[in-house]
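Review form for a predicted model. The reviewer records the input and the model, then writes brief findings.
Reviewer: anonymous (R2)
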Amino acid sequence: MNSKNSTVSGNSERSFTLHWTARAGEHSYTAKLYKLVNGQKQWADLWSGKIRVRRPDQQFAVELEAFPRELEGGGTVYFMVHVENFENTALSLSGFVEDEDGAVIKRIDGLKGRIPANGEKNISFSYTIYGVGNHTFKLFLDNSDGKPNSIGEEHWAEARVEVKPTGNVIASMECMDSVIPYDGSTTCEVTLLNTGNDSVSVSVTSVDFGTVHNAWAKSYQRGIEVKPIKITLPPNDDKEIDVKIDLRKLDQDFWGSDHFTYKFAEHTSYQVTVHFDNGINVSDVLTILNKPLELSKVGVLCSIVGGIGAGFATGANPAAAVAGAGLGYALGASLEKLYWGLYLIAHGNWNIPSDNDGNSVNGG
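Model under review:
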């Protein structure tokens, strides 16, 4: 950018024209106005804004906005995805919004990703954020397969949200294995830092698993274990609390049996939130794969049945036998789900409820 000097008479106004060579992309700008007093610059005013410059062959542009951008201790943030279509025909876009750890908090595809010709669309959702620090959220959209692989036209945008501490204790949380099978387990480490000059004692009061509040609340400790429950933090020191999640045991807490772990895959991911007695909350996202760590005895039996059926379907030659084995395993897993699904219906069905807040994380 350049600058310009001029004189503005009293009770009058004047326009200043500054020149800039445009480059494709989104740019932020700040225009600053100074006045000269005895040859010295004194700040008078400023104006900031954004400008988007598109390439001649660019089909669409994206923006990601977050509000509020600052939180005290955490809370709900409202996101807005803005998409503009420069084409004379409608576009079908797909992609996602992810957090700083790469966990997808919002998927965009289907009708949500349909942008009218020469039109715009706003996609809004909310998300709950805990953990002191700066959080960066990234939006990705393309007109191909919704994956960042340089196929088709791709665009990124990002928004930042800062969570400020409400006291001397700062908490953070990270699940060691953040992507697990629907019958898997993981340990989430909560780090507590005391920035004050006096010792502080804090206790875990409850743990939420998605929309299931108090999935752990000291009353039972099968699916979720917290160790230690209470700690004392010396001045300017930190300690850790381990939150172990075992979906096979949590299955027993929720449904009274360890045969319904596949129901955890009904949601792509869950927000695990730990609550403390001093009002601090901290969370991380746990993504669930739609496949088991291992088949149960019923699953093995179903695999045998599936394999027999696959054998009839594929023939008796060696190549067909290999194909039959793979198909048999798939059929076995499906038959196991069907078996326990019918059992669940017979004994009363219960699903982990959705929160209907527009994002892809249950409880987030």
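Findings: The first helix runs from residue 247 to 255.
Further findings: The chain has three helices and 23 strands.
Recommendation: see findings above.
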